[in-house]
Amino acid sequence: MPRIAPIAESTLTPAQRRVYEKVIAGPRGAVIGPLRAVLHSPELADPWQALGEYLRFNCSLSLALRELAIICAGRYWNSQLEWQVHARVARDAGITAEVIEAIRTASVPEFNNAEEAAVYRFARELLHHGQTTDDTYDAVRDRFGVVGVVDLTALVGYYSMVAMTLNAHEVPLPEQTTRIAPLPIDRTSGSLPQPTLLAQARLVESGRTVPA
Fold first, then answer.
1. For residue 212, what are the contacts with CB-CB under 8 A and spacing of at least 6?
2. Which of 11, 26, 126, 192 has the maximal Cβ count within 10 Å?
3. What is the CATH architecture of 62-173+191-212?
4. What is the reported pTM?
């Protein structure tokens, strides 16, 4: 059960309706995911939806690379809904089923694509440490430029915020979905989940495998 109820369209305030109509008219086409909770605060929801629309649909990285970064954030924070939505999009965008499954199980993903390996490594380090090494940062900047490394950093940060919002408010999953982790909270003991320790990747180059 969600901790706060989604707002019914019939009860929208004028400020909420302005944001709602922007979202409906945009590429999302529906108020889904975290916006179901964030719309309670329309002053927050408006810049939220604009930032999310840019990062998800229009930023400088390819769709496949964007979705790879997103599923890293979703898995790290054990966000069930974020994972369910974006694992499907990542697969459709060209991220292999083997890489997606490795991220889901927090095992070692093997990349045949150096760009994907660089994005994964950057996202993994940023999520684990709040920072990246110079080598990791330089590899992304050299491949994608300054705009690319700025956009990728924002993607990881934004989708961490999305994951926290989905988790905190317990925005419900669609029916008949497969969870990526156990139920996150034992309310009787008050225990909370730990982030997922994503494994270091390997890059397959010309028949040899090297750490990524």
1. 111, 117, 118, 120, 121, 200, 201, 202, 203
2. 126
3. Up-down Bundle (1.20)
4. 0.92
